[in-house]
Specification:
Layout (H helix, E strand, L loop, with lengths): L2 H8 L9 H16 L3 E2 L4 E2 L10 H9 L7 E5 L5 H9 L4 E6 L2 H12 L7 E5 L2 H7 L6 E6 L13 H7 L6 H11 E12 L3 H10 L3 E11 L4 E9 L6 E10 L2 E2 L1 H7 L7
Parallel strand pairs: 3-4, 3-6, 4-5, 6-7, 8-10
Antiparallel strand pairs: 1-2, 7-9, 8-9, 10-11
Length: 272
C-alpha cells in the first residue's frame, strides 16, 4: 500500500443512499483490506497484517521530526510494526537501534520487518514490557536517544479488541511509567522524544519535570490551518537550556499538503 491509497480509504464519502448500512459495511471491508496490505516507503516496506496498530500519521511524524544529534544508540519504546526504528535506521548511522514490543504478534512482525530491511544488522527488537526491559538493562550502557509513540487514550472506553486496546490506551503504559523508565535508560546528554495529544501536553510536561526532564523542542500539529491543534511533538533532555516552540500544519486542503509537511516526510513517502 502507498500513501495515496491509505488516504483515499479514509476520505471515502457516502452518497445519499437508502442502503447506508450496506455502504458502511463495504467501506469497513475495504478499509480493513487495505490496512492489512504492506505499506511501501522509499527505502523499506512495512508488513502490518499481524499488528493491532497499523501505520499512522503519528509514528511517521515523530520519526521524521525528531532531531538526531549523531546518536550511536537509539531505543524505540512500543515498536508496533517497527516503523520508527526503521526511520531511525534510514536517517542515521546509529550502530545500535533497539526496540521493545510487548504484544506477541506485533513483536514477531516487527522482527520480520527489521530483518527484511536494508539495516537488519543494526536493528533488534526485544519481546518484553518496559519495566522488564529496564530491569534487565540496569547495568548496561545508556541510550543516546529514546523515542516513543505511546498509547494515549486516557478515557475509560475500550474497543473490545484487547490487542488494540493494549496498544492504544494509556492504562497500558501510563505517562509516569514511560517517563520514569526513560529517565533511567537515557544517557546524561541524551534526548527523549514523544508524540502525544495536545490536550495532554501540560500534564506530560509536569510529570516529566519530576524526573528532571525539560523540553528543548516542541512542535504543535494541526491538520489544517483553521483546525484545532491535535498533537504535540516533544523532545526533552536533562538540560534546561531553553525550548524552541513552533507549529506544523499538515494540509492546505484535502490531500494538498503544506511545503513544511512535505519537506519533513518526503524522504519516506513514495509519492512526495
Amino acid at each position: 500500500m502507498e500513501f495515496g491509497a491509505f488516504n483515499r480509504v479514509w476520505s471515502l464519502e457516502f452518497g445519499a443512499s437508502k442502503n447506508w448500512n450496506l455502504e458502511l459495511g463495504i467501506w469497513c471491508f475495504k478499509r480493513n483490506t487495505i490496512m492489512e496490505q504492506p505499506f511501501h516507503f522509499k527505502q523499506f516496506t512495512i508488513e502490518q497484517d499481524r499488528c493491532a496498530m497499523k501505520i499512522g500519521t503519528d509514528g511517521i511524524l515523530l520519526g521524521a521530526w525528531v532531531e538526531l544529534k549523531d546518536p550511536y544508540s537509539i531505543l524505540d519504546i512500543g515498536a508496533g510494526t517497527g516503523i520508527i526504528g526503521l526511520m531511525m535506521a534510514q536517517r542515521s548511522d546509529a550502530g545500535l537501534i533497539d526496540a521493545i514490543e510487548i504484544d506477541d504478534e506485533a513483536y514477531e512482525q516487527c522482527v520480520d520487518n527489521f530483518e527484511n530491511s536494508p539495516w537488519g544488522d543494526r536493528l533488534f527488537c526485544y519481546h518484553a514490557s518496559l519495566n522488564e526491559f529496564a530491569e534487565e538493562m540496569q547495568e548496561e550502557e545508556k541510550y543516546d536517544l529514546i523515542i516513543s509513540n505511546p498509547p494515549f487514550y486516557a478515557e475509560d472506553y475500550k474497543s473490545g479488541n484487547n490487542a488494540r486496546d493494549m496498544a492504544r490506551f494509556a492504562d497500558a503504559l501510563p505517562f509516569v511509567d514511560l517517563l520514569g523508565y526513560a529517565s533511567s535508560l537515557l544517557s546524561e546528554d541524551g534526548n527523549f522524544a514523544v508524540i502525544i495529544p495536545f490536550t495532554e501536553e501540560g500534564n506530560f510536561l509536569k510529570i516529566a519535570e519530576t524526573y528532571n526532564f525539560f523540553p528543548n523542542r516542541i512542535t504543535r500539529v494541526r491538520g489544517a490551518e483553521n483546525a484545532p491543534i491535535k498533537r504535540s511533538l516533544l523532545q526533552l533532555s536533562f538540560s534546561t537550556d531553553g525550548v524552541k516552540e513552533d507549529e506544523l500544519v499538515i494540509e492546505i486542503s484535502r490531500h494538498e499538503y503544506t511545503p513544511e509537511y512535505i519537506a519533513m516526510v518526503k524522504n519516506f513517502y513514495l509519492k512526495m
